[in-house]
Write a structure and sequence with these properties.
heterodimer; A: 225 residues; 9 strands; 20% strand; B: 757 residues; alpha/beta; 6-stranded mixed beta sheet; 28 strands; binds iron/sulfur cluster
Chain lengths: 225, 757
C-alpha cells in the first residue's frame, strides 16, 4: 500500500518551539534507525528563539534526482522522493549541492546519500510520519487539505517556492499567515535569505506580523543597565 | 554517619550517570516487539499517553498512542527517549550497604539484609529518641497508590509526623492559593476549554520546554482567534509569537496583577454581578489595588505602562478567557500572593465554571496532583483531608483500623525537615525518589545535613546524588515495572501499566515499604497483594473528602481513558449510591454540588462562594542590589527533567542539551566583556559556579538564567536562596541577586567531568 494521495505534509515554523521531538522521533524510524533525517535550525539564536524544522520537501520535479549522475534517486508513484538507492549511489554529493532546500546529506561512513523519505515504512502502511505524529506544537502536521483548512483558519498552505529564476512545486506545504498568502507566485526564498544571511531556512512572515513581533520590537529596549 | 563513603568520582565510575543510547536490539530494524503496552510518560505533569514496545522482558522502543485524548500521540523528546532507561547499566538490581572499604563505596548485599538493617537502624533511633526522630521524604513521581502507602507507612508504622515530599518544590504555592480562593486545589478545566476562548494569559510558564503538549492547545486557540498574553522575564519559545509580551522583572508578579486589576476596576471591566453573588472579599482587594497606578506598577514590575494598559483592556473586555500559571510566579517567597493575584483577575472577570472559560495551574511533576492529595504531604491525610481536623482524622483512623489518638499531627515542610536534621531532632531518614541534594536551594546546607544523620536509607532505581550518603540503598521500581494510577495536569486520573518485571532483586516500591513494615514488626495494614488492593482502600479513604476518588475504578479509567476527580460513589447530595459517576472535567459550573457547600454554590466553602484575597506585593528576599546587581533566575530545558536522575542517563537527551549554560543578554554580556561561548562565573551570596555563556537577546538585560538539572559543581541550586513562602513553604528559586564575570576557562573540578555529571 502506498501513501494515500490525499494525505499531505504541512510545516508551520510559526508554531515550532525548537523542542527537537521530531529529531528524536526520526531516529526511531525503521528505515534509518539511530539517525535523524530531520534537521532543526535556529534562525539566529542570538536574536530569537525561532527555529525551523527542515525535512525533504518532496519536489514534483526533484532537482536532486535530475542532477544525479547514477540515477539513484527515485520518486515513487505517490510523490515521495526516496533516499538514494544503495547499489546505485556513488556518494558524489551532487544532490547535496543541487537541492535548493539543502536537504540531502551524504553519510561518509556508509557512502550513501540519505534524507527524509516521509517515513515510508510508516506512511506506506497507513500510519502517519513519526515526526508529525509526535510534534507537540503540531508545527508538523500530516493530514488532508480539508483538515488543515478547518484546523488552521488563520494560516494558508503554500507549496510553490522561488529560488531566483527557479520555481519549485513540492508535496510538502509550508503554512504561512493567511494575510501573507497569495502575494506573487509562491514564496521568494532567495529574497528572504538575503534579509537573514547565514540561515538556510525560508522566512515565512513579514516583519510586523504576529510571527516575530516580540523580537522585532525589542521589548527590553527601555531597560537600562 | 551519612557522609559520602569514598571520593565522588569513584561512585560515579561505578553507578553513573552513564549514557544509554540506541544499541543492540533497540537499533535493529528487524526485531518485532512481542506486545505494545499502553501507558504514560514517566516525566512531567502532562503524563502523555504512549505505548511501549516490549520483547523478552525489555522495553525496546515506543509507538505513539494516538487515541489518548490529551496528547493524541504527541510527545516531547523526553517521552520519546524514556524507553532507553529500562535495562540501563546503572539500574540498581541489589540492595547496597555503605562500605568505605569498597573501591566504589558500596557493597551489594542480599535484599533481605538491606531491609533488616534498615528496620533495625530505624527501630534503634526511635527507641532512643522517640518516633519523631525519623523523617520520611517522598516523591511526586510515585503513583498515587505508592504515595498513599508511604503516608500510611510514616504515620501508622513509623508513627512519625515528619513526612513531606518533593512536590513541596513544585505545586504548593498554587495549591495553597487555590484552596484559599476556591476551597479546592485542582486545575478547574480540561485543556480543551482553551480552544475557542478569546484571550489566554500565561503567567510564568515556559510551556514550550516544560509542558510542550500544552503549546498545541495554545496554538489551536490562536488559530481560532485567541489573543495570547505571555508574562515572563524571558522570551520563551512560546512567547516569541504572542500578541502581548509582559517582560516582568523576576519576583514582581503580584504587583503586575494588582495594577491590571486596578485598571479593570477603574474602567468598569469587572463582572459586578458575579462578584456580588458568587464571591466575598472584593472590597478589600479593590482597596489594595487602588494604590497600584499604572505608573507605579510599571516602575516596580519593569513592564511598560502601555503593555499593562493593553493587558487590562484585552483581559478586562474579553467574553471568554483562560489563565494559567506555573513555577515562574510560584517559586517565590511571595508565591502564594502571586498566585492569588492571578485568581483575583479570574474572579473579577467572572469567567470561570463555564465552557471556554478557565483557570489552571500547570503541574510540573508526573503525579504532582495525585501525589499531594493522598497523604504524603506534611499536613494532609488521604482525600485531601486535613490532618489537624478531628473529624477527618477519625475517618482515616477508621479506614486504617487504628485509634485516632495514635495518628500523629501535622509535620513540617521538606526544607524544615532538613533544619530539624541540622538541629539533631531528626536522626534517621528514609527517602524514596527524591534527590534533595540537587533539587533544594542552598544545597550546600542540605549536604551538611545529610552528613549529620545517624542513619539514612534511600529507595530508588538509580543511585542518585543524595543516595550517595545512604547507609542502605534498597532497589525500587522503574515506572514501567509497576502499575498504578496518577493524576495529570487537568485532574484526569489515568493508569500506568506494567510492561516488564523488576530486574534482579529490585522490588516494586510498595513491596519494599511493606517488607520494611514487616521487618519493623508492624505489618498490620501493610499486607496488600497488588496496587489494585491499595487503590481500593484509597477509594474508601478518599470517600467524602474533597479529592473524592471513590467512584474511580481501574476499569473505568481504561474505558474512559482517564477519569477527572472528584468522582463519587455516593451522590453527595442525597447520599444514595451512584453506579457510574462519570467524573468532573470542569469545576464550579453553576448549580454544581460539592460536599462542602452542599448546594449553596459551586465553590468549596460552606456558603458556596469564592474568596477574593488581598494579594500583596512583597519584594523578594535576597533581591538584586548592591554587590549583587543582577537577577538570577532558574528553570528547565526541554530535554532534561528535574534533578536529572533519569534524563542525564539517556544519551540522546544529553546530546540535545549537554551542560547548563548561562543565558545572558548581549547588552549585559558586552558590559561584562563576555562573548557567546565564553566561560563565565556567577556568584550569589552563597556560592559561585562557572559555566559557558549563551548570549541571546531573549532575556531581560538585568537578568541571567541557568537551568537546574545538574549536580555538584554544575548545580545552580548551590547558588539559590532558601527563602520560603510563609504559607506554602515553597523556596524562592526564581530570583536572587548575583554578579557575573568573565572566567578564563572551566574550573578544574568541571573540566574533568562528563557532560551529564
Ligand atoms: S517524515 Fe519520517 S523520515 Fe521524514 S523527517 Fe519525519 S520522521 Fe524523519
Ligand atoms: S517537534 Fe515540532 S515543535 Fe518540536 S522542534 Fe520539531 S517541528 Fe519544532
Ligand atoms: S515529559 Fe511531559 S510532555 Fe514530554 S512526553 Fe513526557 S509527559 Fe509528555
Amino acid at each position: 500500500m502506498a501513501k494515500p494521495d490525499h494525505l499531505q505534509f504541512f510545516i508551520d515554523p510559526g508554531r515550532c518551539i525548537g523542542c527537537q521531538a521530531c529529531v528524536q522521533a526520526c531516529t526511531e524510524c525503521d528505515t534509518h534507525r539511530g539517525t535523524s533525517m530531520i534537521h532543526l535550525e535556529f534562525i539566529e539564536r542570538g536574536r530569537s528563539v525561532q527555529t525551523v524544522p527542515v525535512v525533504c520537501m518532496h519536489c514534483e520535479q526533484p532537482t536532486c534526482a535530475e542532477v544525479c549522475p547514477a540515477d539513484a534517486i527515485k520518486r515513487t508513484g505517490d510523490g515521495i522522493v526516496q533516499s538514494a538507492r544503495k547499489p546505485r549511489c556513488i556518494a558524489c554529493g551532487n544532490c547535496v549541492l543541487a537541492c535548493p532546500f539543502g536537504v540531502p546529506e551524504v553519510y561518509e561512513d556508509r557512502q550513501i546519500m540519505m534524507k527524509c523519505d516521509m517515513c515510508y515504512d510508516r506512511t506506506s502502511v497507513g500510519k502517519k510520519p513519526m515526526c508529525a505524529t509526535v510534534c507537540p506544537s503540531q508545527a508538523l502536521f500530516f493530514g488532508t487539505l480539508e483538515q488543515i483548512e478547518q484546523l488552521r483558519p488563520r494560516s494558508a498552505p503554500l507549496n510553490r517556492f522561488r529560488f531566483g529564476a527557479q520555481t519549485i512545486t513540492t508535496r510538502v506545504h509550508i503554512m504561512i499567515p493567511r494575510g501573507d498568502a497569495g502575494r506573487g507566485d509562491g514564496l521568494d526564498v532567495s529574497g528572504a535569505l538575503q534579509k537573514h544571511p547565514g540561515s538556510r531556512a525560508p522566512r515565512t512572515s513579514q516583519p510586523g506580523t504576529v510571527a516575530d513581533r516580540a523580537v522585532e520590537q525589542d521589548p527590553f529596549e527601555e531597560i537600562s543597565l | 554517619m551519612a557522609t559520602v563513603p569514598v571520593d565522588d568520582r569513584q561512585i560515579i565510575r561505578r553507578y553513573g550517570p552513564h549514557l544509554s543510547s540506541m544499541a543492540g536490539v533497540r537499533l535493529s530494524t528487524s526485531v518485532e516487539p512481542e506486545r505494545l503496552v499502553k501507558t504514560h510518560c514517566c516525566f512531567c505533569g502532562q503524563q502523555c499517553g504512549l505505548q511501549l514496545k516490549v520483547r523478552d522482558n525489555q522495553v525496546i522502543g515506543f509507538e505513539p498512542w494516538e487515541e489518548f485524548p490529551f496528547n493524541r500521540g504527541m510527545l516531547c523528546p523526553k517521552g520519546i527517549k524514556r524507553y532507553l532507561q529500562g535495562s540501563h547499566p546503572d539500574r540498581l538490581t541489589t540492595a547496597l550497604r555503605r562500605d568505605p572499604a569498597d573501591p566504589h563505596g558500596f557493597r551489594a548485599v542480599p535484599y533481605e539484609e538491606g531491609v533488616r538493617a534498615t528496620a533495625e537502624a530505624l527501630a534503634r533511633i526511635q527507641q532512643s529518641h522517640g518516633p519523631a526522630a525519623v523523617g520520611v521524604l517522598g516523591g511526586a513521581s510515585l503513583t498515587t497508590e505508592k504515595t498513599y502507602l508511604l503516608g500510611k507507612f510514616a504515620r501508622v508504622c513509623l508513627q512519625t509526623p515528619f513526612i513531606d515530599y518533593n512536590g513541596r518544590l513544585c505545586m504548593v504555592s498554587a495549591g495553597a492559593a487555590n484552596k484559599k480562593a476556591f476551597g479546592i486545589d485542582r486545575t478547574t478545566n480540561p485543556w480543551s476549554d482553551m480552544v475557542g476562548t478569546e484571550v489566554i494569559w500565561v503567567a510564568g510558564s515556559n510551556v514550550a520546554e516544560c509542558s510542550p503538549i500544552t503549546t498545541n492547545y495554545l496554538w489551536q486557540a490562536r488559530e481560532q482567534g485567541a489573543r495570547l498574553i505571555m508574562q515572563d522575564p524571558r522570551i520563551t519559545p512560546a512567547a516569541r509569537t504572542c500578541d502581548l509580551y509582559l517582560p516582568v522583572k523576576p519576583g514582581r508578579d503580584a504587583a503586575l496583577f494588582a495594577g491590571v486589576l486596578a485598571l479593570m476596576i477603574e474602567n468598569g471591566w469587572v463582572d459586578e454581578e458575579f462578584i456580588a453573588t458568587r464571591t466575598v472579599g472584593f472590597d478589600q482587594v479593590a482597596a489594595y489595588c487602588r494604590d497600584w497606578t499604572p505608573a507605579r506598577t510599571a516602575e516596580v514590575t519593569g513592564v511598560p505602562e502601555r503593555s499593562i494598559r493593553q493587558a487590562a483592556e484585552w483581559w478586562g473586555q474579553a467574553r471568554s478567557s483562560f489563565l494559567f500559571h506555573a513555577r515562574g510566579i510560584e517559586h517565590h517567597s511571595n508565591g502564594v500572593q502571586n498566585a492569588l493575584g492571578t485568581i483575583n483577575l479570574v474572579l473579577a472577570s467572572g469567567r470561570i465554571g463555564k465552557p471556554k472559560c478557565g483557570y489552571g495551574t500547570i503541574v510540573g511533576q508526573g503525579n504532582g496532583q495525585g501525589g499531594r492529595e493522598h497523604g504524603q504531604k506534611a499536613d494532609q491525610l488521604p482525600g485531601w483531608r486535613d490532618i489537624a481536623n478531628p473529624e477527618h482524622r477519625r475517618h482515616i483512623a477508621g479506614v486504617w483500623g487504628i485509634d485516632e489518638k495514635d495518628l500523629p499531627g501535622p509535620g513540617v515542610d521538606a526544607y524544615e525537615l532538613f533544619r530539624k536534621i541540622d538541629a539533631g531532632e531528626i536522626r534517621g531518614l528514609i527517602s524514596i525518589c527524591f534527590n534533595p541534594k540537587v533539587s533544594l536551594p542552598d544545597s550546600g546546607f542540605i549536604t551538611r545535613c545529610l552528613e549529620k544523620l545517624d542513619f539514612y536509607a534511600a529507595i530508588d532505581f538509580f543511585l542518585n546524588d543524595t543516595a550517595w550518603h545512604a547507609d542502605v540503598v534498597l532497589p525500587g521500581s522503574l515506572h514501567e515495572e509497576d502499575e498504578g494510577t496518577v493524576t495529570q495536569v487537568e485532574g484526569r486520573v489515568i493508569k500506568i501499566n506494567k510492561a516488564v518485571e523488576c530486574p534482579g532483586e529490585a522490588r516494586e516500591d510498595w513491596r519494599v515499604l511493606q517488607d520494611l513494615a514487616a521487618a519493623l514488626g508492624r505489618p498490620h495494614g501493610f499486607t496488600f497483594r497488588n496496587p489494585r488492593e491499595i487503590f481500593e482502600e484509597l477509594r474508601r479513604a478518599s470517600k467524602g473528602g474533597v479529592a473524592d476518588y471513590s467512584g474511580i475504578t481501574y476499569e473505568k479509567i481504561e474505558r474512559q481513558m482517564g477519569v477527572f476527580w472528584p468522582c463519587y460513589s455516593e451522590d453527595p447530595e442525597t447520599g444514595q449510591s451512584v453506579a457510574d459517576h462519570p467524573g468532573t472535567p470542569r469545576l464550579f459550573e453553576p448549580g454544581s454540588f460539592n460536599p462542602v457547600a452542599r448546594g449553596a454554590g459551586p465553590f468549596y466553602f460552606p456558603d458556596g462562594k469564592a474568596r477574593f484575597n488581598v494579594a500583596e506585593y512583597r519584594p523578594p528576599v535576597d533581591d538584586a542590589g548592591g554587590d549583587y546587581p543582577i537577577y538570577l533566575t532558574t528553570g528547565r530545558v526541554v530535554s532534561q527533567f528535574l534533578s536529572g536522575t533519569q534524563t542525564r542517563r539517556i544519551g540522546p537527551l544529553v546530546d540535545q542539551y549537554p551542560e547548563p549554560r548561562l543565558e545572558i543578554h548581549p547588552r549585559l554580556a558586552e558590559k561584562l566583556g563576555i562573548r557567546d561561548g565564553d566561560w563565565a562565573t556567577v556568584e550569589t551570596r552563597r556560592a559561585s559556579m562557572t559555566l559557558r555563556a549563551l548570549v541571546a537577546a531573549t532575556i531581560r538585560p538585568d537578568t541571567v538564567f541557568v537551568p537546574y538539572h545538574w549536580p555538584g559543581p554544575k548545580s545552580v541550586n548551590r547558588l539559590t536562596v532558601a527563602a520560603q513562602d510563609p504559607i506554602s513553604k515553597i523556596p524562592q528559586y526564581k530570583v536572587c541577586g548575583c554578579r557575573v564575570r568573565r572566567a578564563e576557562g572551566p574550573p578544574s573540578e568541571i573540566a574533568g567531568l562528563e557532560p551529564q555529571q
